[in-house]
Design brief:
alpha+beta; single chain
Length: about 180
């Protein structure tokens, strides 16, 4: 499996992955994290345009996708019931989804992210137990909850590898 920047030609595959993830979440006791229209093609198109949408391919077929962008994330500014591991610059993972669970796709994507940045924050629904378990396996620490602009809250996790500190210049250069 390989990770690469998404292209416009990947939009149909990404939409299919979002649909498959929505169904998996619902069947796994998490029917409320994603709505019928979020995330959708419009979100993926925007992320591709910004250069932050990535896909995981297996033998040339797109089997996973995620948004990986430099922070700060505006709604991460107020953290309830805890604190972040540090105050350094960080990347954020959003819209993390796989076509089929249990095949190592999520592990491949998260491994790539953790090797690409030493400081990552991510949020997920309290009922998204599979995602929370995956994050914990990679050393992400539950840090509290954040309120969403559209209502509700999300559980937040933080990965911080202590061997080096990221810089804004390095993070932004990496995306170019």
């Amino acid at each position: 499996m390989e990770i690469r920047s998404a292209e416009k030609g990947d939009l149909d595959a990404i939409s299919d992955i979002f649909d498959a993830a929505r169904l998996f979440m619902s069947e796994s006791g998490n029917p409320h994290q994603w709505t019928a229209d979020y995330p959708g093609r419009r979100d993926a198109k925007r992320d591709i345009r910004r250069g932050t949408q990535f896909v995981c391919t297996d033998e040339g077929k797109v089997v996973g996708c995620f948004d990986f962008e430099p922070g700060p994330e505006p709604y991460y500014r107020v953290l309830e019931e805890g604190q972040w591991l540090n105050k350094f610059d960080y990347f954020v993972i959003h819209r993390f989804a796989v076509l089929h669970s249990g095949r190592g796709i999520g592990r491949t994507m998260l491994d790539w992210a953790c090797h690409s940045s030493n400081n990552i924050r991510v949020d997920t629904h309290k009922d998204n137990v599979p995602m929370q378990a995956l994050l914990k396996r990679f050393g992400f620490v539950r840090c509290g909850i954040v309120r969403l602009p559209r209502g509700g809250f999300r559980v937040v996790y933080h990965y911080a590898r202590p061997d080096e500190r990221p810089t804004k210049e390095g993070m932004r250069a990496w995306l170019c």
